[in-house]
């Protein structure tokens, strides 16, 4: 059976025949002048984020690049849609208010004043013209004490380099950011944070070493206990603050649903 499958895949196919290795190219400028036709997403959230197959009236790649290059702790909040959600491997779904509050409480800005984010490889999703992916590698030096909700991690002078990770942004037809996916590590062996990217790489360098992956039931329980106790930020927003379009029931380090 395996030999037959390999023979099938290696046999020449007419251009009109099924090709399991064929890539879906990004739409051309002519194709993008009307509604975009693409396979229906198996996840209802990602189908919703295609906005009924409409076309952006702005350059998504340039807009994303501009947003990323201007990113700072004091970014203009008007760029975010009121139904904004951020999701990472073990964080989210979380809205802007909770996200800012949690990051402020961790004291990262004071602990790593020289943080740099090297961004590259911007590309628009060929199945969703409102979505743009890009890569980042973070570097920073732990030159200030990190005050994480009252727990002090003294400055060590340690230099951090995270592994490259993938991020993505989804814009609304009105030009607002409605969804961000963050910190998906490409190669966990790179850098000196034991495979941790973005904020988790900063925390690791400061001495707060959190080992967690999607589906980690122990870490998910710890997150829920933290929410119940309160006073130490949130790993995801309260149910009433999560927009209706986000139908996934997975929270924080919970496993991912099978749609």
Structure, described:
The longest helix has 13 residues, at 217-229. The chain has helices spanning 2-10, 44-48, 60-69, 96-106, 108-111, 198-206, 217-229, and strands at residues 80-87, 116-124, 131-141, 146-148, 151-153, 159-161, 165-171, 177-185. The strands form two sheets. Strands 1, 2, 3, 6, 7 and 8 form a six-stranded mixed sheet that branches. It has a two-stranded antiparallel ribbon with strand order 4-5. It is globular and about 55 Å long. With 259 residues, the chain is α+β, with helices and mostly antiparallel strands. The protein is built from seven helices and eight strands, in the order αααβααβββββββαα.
- According to DSSP, the number of beta strands is 8
Order of helices and strands: HHHEHHEEEEEEEHH
Shape: globular
- Major beta sheet summary: 6 strands, mixed
Q: What is the element layout, followed by pairings?
A:
Elements: H1 2-10, H2 44-48, H3 60-69, E1 80-87, H4 96-106, H5 108-111, E2 116-124, E3 131-141, E4 146-148, E5 151-153, E6 159-161, E7 165-171, E8 177-185, H6 198-206, H7 217-229
Parallel strand pairs: 1-8
Antiparallel strand pairs: 2-3, 3-6, 3-7, 4-5, 7-8
